[in-house]
Amino acid sequence: MTSLRSPLFLAILLPLLAAGVWAECPAPTDLKNADGTKVCAKLYTENSPYYDQCCAGDVLLVPPEEDQPYVPSPFNNKVSSLVVAQKCQLVVWSSKGKGGKTRTFKTGSYPRLQEYRRGIFGDWNNAISAYYCKCT
Question: Would I find NAD among this entry's keywords (predicted)?
């Protein structure tokens, strides 16, 4: 039986982890378009109880300074994970037209929005209906 600490196991596992075989949220420094321009945030429609499988599903790329009082319908109240780029912040609202509860997500990965409280009884999973993204 192969031990988790055996050199053979580590020799196989480490390159797979480095190659990103298991999906996980991108690093905030990696948020760029194919042409190299900056992306302020990425919003994802799926997450998982397993952190290495979060930031999945449909992806909405949010450019810097984008102000959306109405999230596009395929993403309205369907965002479950998000990543905010370095030196950026994403302000979100729970109701259309920038109404309801609000929260600011600063630079970082937020793989499971159900871990972030929205008032006493709610959380931010499937609750984003408007946003503004700003970078310095």
Answer: no
